[in-house]
Design a protein that fits this description.
Blueprint (H helix, E strand, L loop, with lengths): L5 H7 L1 E2 L2 E2 L2 H23 L8 E5 L5 E3 H14 L5 E6 L6 E2 L6 E9 L10 E9 L7 H4 L8 E7 L3 E6 L4 E7 L4 E6 L10 E3 L10 H11 L11 E2 L5 H11 L2 E4 L12 E2 H14 L3 E3 L17 E2 L1 E4 L1 H8 L4
Parallel strand pairs: 5-7, 13-14, 13-15
Antiparallel strand pairs: 1-2, 3-4, 5-6, 7-8, 8-9, 9-10, 10-11, 11-12, 15-19, 16-18, 17-19
The chain binds 1,6-di-O-phosphono-alpha-D-fructofuranose.
1,6-di-O-phosphono-alpha-D-fructofuranose binds next to loops.
């Protein structure tokens, strides 16, 4: 049983033979410490007053949950004075949030992913992404960097255990929160996604709205071992990207949130900068693949807006390539 905690791990971790920059280590620790606080709020549920809705809409046009706002405020309040940051961006805020200093990094986050699960006691999480600050006064344009420029990404999943899954560009590592002392303990070294899978994650209720290639791929999976795939498939949909991606990080699979014709002007539901890009960095670092459907490699997509939406297909490399072969 590992007894390496996050602090020790970060100080011995090597990236291309070099130690991680001390400013990046500090930033990761500040984010991880805030997630410990969020974990405590989540665990308290009705006892900590985090359930229910704020009754107002965020920039996404989604009704904000109490925990969306509390998590967002915790990250802003805990990090705004960080000497490591120039600015932050959040799913919950239309504009960027300048930090009090001009530090070397930009932080983006979805403070509470899977909000529809909060009130029914199903896994939710926090997703974050770190970019280098280009210097000078931060503006929205400074954030619009392709995902391949991320220097770190991670998520915490508040489930039966609270886990932090993290990459600094040299593999993916999983830490389990020890509730007894609030320390993150290394429990998964160099996580790898199996190249093949028999499990897909998609919201099947949208089937009639999908483009034909997506429909054809899922139909062939549903045809099972007597169909063109020659094997049976399983389906999972937790309705929290962070939990569906964590399952894929642990045992393989593919996650799909494709474009559909319900809102044809939207490229997809999920957001590029603080959902698709950090998850895609982690997936690629674990040997998987992530594409924005016909737009190709997710991490190559040049952002055009802070809250830009993209179609997302990620997970086991060979299965994502199989999906690509349908012409999605
Ligand atoms: P919420 O945070 O509004 O619950 O949305 C979660 C999410 O962005 C992503 O985490 C899920 O994979 C996806 O939406 C679920 O979308 P559906 O509710 O349409 O299945």
């Amino acid at each position: 049983m590992s007894h390496t905690d996050l602090a020790s791990f970060l100080r011995q971790h090597q990236i291309n033979g070099q130690p991680a920059p001390s400013e990046l280590i500090s930033l990761i620790e500040e984010v991880a410490a805030t997630c410990v606080t969020i974990s405590g709020l989540v665990a308290g549920g009705a006892l900590t007053g985090v359930l229910g809705s704020r009754g107002v809409e965020n920039v996404q046009g989604e009704v904000q949950k109490e925990l969306d706002v509390l998590s967002n405020d915790l990250l802003l309040n805990n990090l705004e004075a960080s000497p490591q940051l120039s600015a932050m961006a959040s799913e919950e805020m239309e504009e960027i949030y300048p930090a009090k200093t001009r530090g070397p990094y930009l932080l983006l986050f979805d403070p509470l992913d899977g909000s529809s699960n909060i009130d029914i006691n199903v896994s939710i999480g926090t997703i974050f992404s770190v970019l280098k600050a280009p210097g000078g006064a931060p503006d929205t344009q400074a954030f619009l960097q392709a995902g391949k420029h991320q220097v770190a990404a991670g998520y915490t999943v508040y489930g039966p255990q609270t886990m932090l899954v993290l990459t600094l560009g040299a593999g993916v590592f999983g830490f389990t929160l020890n509730p007894a002392d609030g320390l993150w303990v290394l429990t998964a070294e160099t996580m790898q996604i199996p190249a093949d899978t028999q499990e897909f994650a998609i919201n099947m209720s949208n089937m009639r709205h999908w483009a034909p290639p997506v429909r054809a791929y899922i139909d062939d999976c549903l045809a099972g071992k007597d169909g063109p795939r020659g094997k049976d498939f399983n389906m999972r949909w937790i309705a929290a990207m962070v939990a569906d991606v964590h399952r894929i990080m642990c045992r393989g699979g593919v996650f799909m949130y494709p474009w559909d014709k319900r809102e044809p002007d939207k490229a997809g539901k999920l957001r590029l900068m603080y959902e698709a890009n950090p998850m895609s960095f982690l997936v690629e670092q674990a040997g998987g693949k992530s594409i924005a459907a016909s737009a190709g490699r997710m991490l190559d997509v040049t952002p055009t807006g802070l809250h830009q939406r993209v179609p997302v297909i990620l997970g086991s490399r060979n299965e994502v390539e199989k999906i690509e072969s349908y012409g999605v």
